[in-house]
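Subject: mismatched residue count in predicted assembly?

I count 1028 residues in my input, but I want to confirm that the predicted structure covers every chain. Input:
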Amino acid sequence: MRDVQSEKDHRNIPINMVGIKGLKYPIIVMDRTNKRQHTIGTFNLFVDLPKDFRGTHMSRFVEVLDRHNMKVTPKNMESILDDMREALKATVAHVTVDFPYFIRKNAPISGIGSYSSYNCGFISTKNKEFDFILKVEVPVLTVCPCSKEISDRGAHNQRAMVNVQVRMNSLVWIEEIIEMVEDAASAPIFTLLKREDEKFITEVSYDNPRFVEDVSREVVLRFMNDPRISWYRVEVSSQESIHNHEAYACIEKGKSL
Amino acid sequence: MRDVQSEKDHRNIPINMVGIKGLKYPIIVMDRTNKRQHTIGTFNLFVDLPKDFRGTHMSRFVEVLDRHNMKVTPKNMESILDDMREALKATVAHVTVDFPYFIRKNAPISGIGSYSSYNCGFISTKNKEFDFILKVEVPVLTVCPCSKEISDRGAHNQRAMVNVQVRMNSLVWIEEIIEMVEDAASAPIFTLLKREDEKFITEVSYDNPRFVEDVSREVVLRFMNDPRISWYRVEVSSQESIHNHEAYACIEKGKSL
Amino acid sequence: MRDVQSEKDHRNIPINMVGIKGLKYPIIVMDRTNKRQHTIGTFNLFVDLPKDFRGTHMSRFVEVLDRHNMKVTPKNMESILDDMREALKATVAHVTVDFPYFIRKNAPISGIGSYSSYNCGFISTKNKEFDFILKVEVPVLTVCPCSKEISDRGAHNQRAMVNVQVRMNSLVWIEEIIEMVEDAASAPIFTLLKREDEKFITEVSYDNPRFVEDVSREVVLRFMNDPRISWYRVEVSSQESIHNHEAYACIEKGKSL
Amino acid sequence: MRDVQSEKDHRNIPINMVGIKGLKYPIIVMDRTNKRQHTIGTFNLFVDLPKDFRGTHMSRFVEVLDRHNMKVTPKNMESILDDMREALKATVAHVTVDFPYFIRKNAPISGIGSYSSYNCGFISTKNKEFDFILKVEVPVLTVCPCSKEISDRGAHNQRAMVNVQVRMNSLVWIEEIIEMVEDAASAPIFTLLKREDEKFITEVSYDNPRFVEDVSREVVLRFMNDPRISWYRVEVSSQESIHNHEAYACIEKGKSL
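Triage response: the counts match. Full output below for your records.
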């Protein structure tokens, strides 16, 4: 059968990224407590395509991924990228994967356990060097400092999503990132809280009011002081309870205006 | 050209609903203040198909809709349904449309104006009789009564979405539904609030703590006492600030367990 | 601490459903090939609330779910529902759960294996009796019979999503539902296809053109003839390649116009 | 009342972007045929925040936007950005807005008219200079060249989304971008097609098979040859009818590997 993709292209235009997008695949990721966790990845797998070829070979992306037995670790990502470059005769390879990650947490006073879900992901590229970014989304509670200050009673508060991306010099567990982010908010949130826990979270959060600006800076302070973290991007989106839109703040290391 | 759709089907299975889904079309709806409002509808247009025919004629759904000059009112919906039944030789026709609707609201103390957006919709059917349901989604603020009661200071609160559906004996404006729902919550929410407004909303909501159960019942009380409303379904989903899931309550008129 | 939820409510309005929504939790479901499959559930857990009580106890829903060790089978669902009714002193309990489910499939000619992902779910209720519905979403290929008939060459085709719900007299595997649905379409689809497989799927689908009406009827024919299936609802949504909207057909057993 | 936001911050960390996100507002955009089109914008409005201030003033973003009477043109965007910088004492301002845009198109043979919807947007920044990017998403039809070549009959095809971003030296209408993109695909798609139109589109597309790689290159060829376009990014995502994931290609001007 003719290999249409391998035919010469005369338009003289290289393609930056080509491949498959939105592929769901079962994966196994590292878990600090249980060593391994089964979860579900949503993958984008891309390579570059030189100007001389008409198309890439889409089926090979799946073959490479499938060959790695579902293991998705930083080390494994580099191996997937190398295999993609070889299988597709490419110079650069890109793999991103998003996955839900579960942690068993105990309520702060009652100690009762339950699972909390975090949207995590990896962004990786291999050209000459291997680049790897860890993404973690942490839901937290933010109490508005302005509302607390100007009101005779109460203070508006809400769930906020903190999206962090980090490059690392050495391993930082997802669990550690979550702890740092929760520590930077008005209070952490939980799947299961009994009444005594709810009282505690309500009071702690009221005592620690935080704007989205505060949360982003507090996370950055913690990341700056961790020598394992070489780069970070921190975004905070607060689902304002008094509005139907979000408040947002973003700090990226090394980015000027 | 052969009309494959009109060919006889021998499988002896009537189809309950067939047509097109997810069609975006510019529309004009009634506006209490400005008479008319331009907005964007997302339509589902379905009819039944008797067991004897292989297929419906999809293009006619668009032709019927387009012929009505974008006007979407209760009266107009019935006319669209009648035209669909005729154009497609059907017994029953169904049209649902969802659209964002904007209202200019003034902040409670400063009086400054801004637009608020509400997801609205119509669900309509014509068999022998014409059935019409108005849908309105109203974002509100809910302060947790339990959290307030058990805590020495503060109370967790959050944005909650109140989804109501009503059948009417006579016209009820979208604006009236929104006012009834906002009145049933801890406080209304706004796109633009200056500091004095934020203080007001914070204190008012703290003085009116409401569970999702309370909000649903308070809305129902208002609907029960409005003779124009003959049927209702009220759903409240609160984006709990202390959890990463929603609290939910639903009351439907005439529904037992 | 005061139990605000248990206080008497004087509004005299029972609530049909109250509980938690959108809770993500790790689960284990039955797998025809491997006995068990780890996946991720998104849960809604509701009970009724009599007119005399102000609120339900939201934390107990999570406690009940957590106590079942993540197992989600039809039998286990009934046990969760019973526990919810007891823990929350309710008459009726409702649990819905949606989850991705993976099946290893071999390409039709090359035989190469890969995982395919299917969105599945359970809808269950316990009042006096236990009611259980299995949901499966199957992506398939549909070639338009009209386009093929009237065109001198080619025929437009596209991915279509077939959403089925079934009530069962005895166990039907998710895998069996998928096979019946794929058999009813122009062709099944795969995550990984080599060139010889792509040729096969292209030709097979061209030889079996199917409207959404055809697919829905063909699925129903297979379900009618399976004594294990006591009720079904079949929806087909075709992501029309020549339009930016969907074609849709729906057949529900026992539903008249 | 105390202005908490204006207080001095001692953490010494400037914030790259702070403001509001996901704000829906009614807007009026330019329309080549009808001069003006009412539509609905979803806005992100951000500024930078120097290290010395604790917070920005969120309400002023809405005030600035509201003051511009809903007009959203390139010229107007610069004015919004300037007003944001002044109102918030910022150095840089960012505004992005996404909106649906409708065009009346006539079917290729029958000539019957209907509206097609396109997701469009603007990305604008003002620091010392004003930067403006136009985004347009164009759904098209792609027939797979490989499938056509290797199969004895038929060829798999599908809806593909072409997302383009352009910077301009002088005005390029959204309508012109759409025409260039449709011309680069196997065939354009329409909301309403009668049988003779469907035959035409089926045959034209079969005669013009295009990979995602082909479509991206063909769009780039057209953009390279238009002196009004100074920069482009072209992404093509094809909703593969034989898979449950997308095929993807991306070319960005000036980007190396």
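Strands of chain D lie at 15-31, 35-49, 93-106, 113-126, 130-143, 157-168, 187-188, 229-238, 246-252. Marking this ticket as 'not a bug'.
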